[in-house]
């Protein structure tokens, strides 16, 4: 009996689509067969297999991005039922239907729910979110981090550049140059590294420019939306303190 009920079940999805970056968005509805343990990615794959909408019209398959399918790569970020999140961990059984799928609005749309996250990657370049080792010779083992520091730094390293925190932040939009929560948290991570600390002042100076730390409005949406539970507001507070110290240091040295 249960198997028969499952066989007759369907899933309804409303997808906000866009044919190219310059065209207007439109909504298209789909109804697909239900399978146990489906997530939004598997639902989109079913539409890709049989791209027919609820009007019975053959249409183009929905375009989206995905890679790891285990909430590690951050590629499948989209807005699902009004909430920015990862599609791979959005289970159909836990979602209200019709499932509403939209692209994140903070970033330019390339097609359907595929977005250009270039704004975030450029911000990471701006703050030099890496450890500058040229690799021309063997440096040997690096200095060890204190265990108390390593534990919280590891939490920051879970960032998968999914962009969800930027989507949730009301201060990140096309009218502002605010760098966003993720790059700020990465500055804290790399400044805590024994080798990365060599560029600490350079990173802090970047955050003291327009669009840096001063753009945060303390809405705290980012920490609530982060799929990995990264303490973003704690990082922002810590960097706020560090940039203030850096500012006073510059005044004293001038």
Automatic annotation (TrEMBL):
Biased composition of type Polar residues is found at: 1-16
Query: Which intervals of the chain are annotated as region Disordered?
Result: 1-27
Keyword list (alphabetical) reads: 2Fe-2S, 3Fe-4S, 4Fe-4S, Iron, Iron-sulfur, Metal-binding, Oxidoreductase, Tricarboxylic acid cycle
The cofactor named in the record is: [4Fe-4S] cluster; [2Fe-2S] cluster; [3Fe-4S] cluster
Q: Which residues form the 4Fe-4S ferredoxin-type domain?
A: 150-181
Renumbered to this chain, the Basic and acidic residues biased-composition regions fall at 17-27
Keyword Iron attached: yes
Output the superkingdom of the source species: Bacteria
EC top class, in one word? oxidoreductase
Q: What is its EC number?
A: 1.3.5.1
Q: Where is the signal peptide?
A: none
What does the sequence similarity comment in the record state about its family?
A: Belongs to the succinate dehydrogenase/fumarate reductase iron-sulfur protein family.
NCBIfam families, from UniProt?
A: dhsB, PRK08640.1
Put simply, this protein is called: succinate dehydrogenase
Question: What organism does the record attribute this protein to?
Answer: Marinicrinis lubricantis
Gene that codes for this? sdhB
